[in-house]
Each structure stands twice: as C-alpha cells, then as structure tokens.
Amino acid sequence: MTDLEQLRWQIDQTDKEIAELLKERFDFTAMIAAVKDRDGIPTLNSQREDVVLTKVTENLRDPQVGKAITEIFKKIMDESKKQQNQLLNRVGEAK
Ligand SMILES: C=C(O[C@@H]1C=C(C(=O)O)C=C[C@H]1O)C(=O)O
C-alpha cells in the first residue's frame, strides 16, 4: 500500500466509526422526540444546543479545529431537529 492508500484506508475506518456513532446519536434523538411528544416539549432548545457545542469543543486546543467541529455539530443538530420534527409529524403533533 502506498502512503496515500494507507492514509485513505485510515480515513475509511474513521468514517465508518463516525457513521456508526452518528447513527447511535440519531437513535437517542429519536427517543428524545418520543419524550417531547409525550410531555408537550418543543423540538428546539437553543440553550441545550449551546451546551452541546461547548462540551464538544472545550478540550480542543486548536481554535481552527474547534470552529470546524462547531460547524459540523450545528449541522448534526439541524438534522436531529429535522428527524424529530418528522417523527412528531408522523404522530400528528409537530412542535
Ligand atoms: C436532542 C434535543 O433536541 C434538539 C436537538 C439537539 C441535539 O441534536 O443535540 C439539542 C437540542 C434541541 O434543539 C434535545 O432537546 O436534547
């Protein structure tokens, strides 16, 4: 394997792990949708989103990496809200 192939192989393994962890995260946000539906809680919680962004970046030393991870997590949370709204719509009670 060339250096490039070796590094791309490592990226492929990392991507698989990221995808599995994201799937796990979406399973939890689907469970949160069910709780919100049951308790009449809106999908969006900006304060919680700020906490998530702080937690995922607080131990990073490189500000540029921190900025990139913040943007990625904003997108993940957008998808999570989309997913929750779809689940809530399915049971006829979008919030
Ligand atoms: C998952 C939740 O719903 C929304 C999505 C969030 C997320 O994906 O982390 C965080 C806050 C909410 O805007 C939640 O309220 O915890």
UniProtKB/TrEMBL annotation:
Q: Which UniProt keywords are present, listed alphabetically?
A: Isomerase
| Keyword ATP-binding belongs to the record | no
Whether Isomerase counts among this entry's keywords is: yes
A GO biological process of this protein is: salicylic acid biosynthetic process
- Which Pfam families does the record associate with it? CM_2
User: What span is annotated as the signal peptide, if there is one?
Assistant: none
According to the entry, every stretch annotated as the Chorismate mutase domain falls at 1-88
Q: Which GO terms describe its molecular function?
A: chorismate mutase activity
Q: What is this protein identified as?
A: Chorismate mutase
Q: Supply the source organism's classification.
A: Bacteria, Bacillati, Bacillota, Bacilli, Lactobacillales
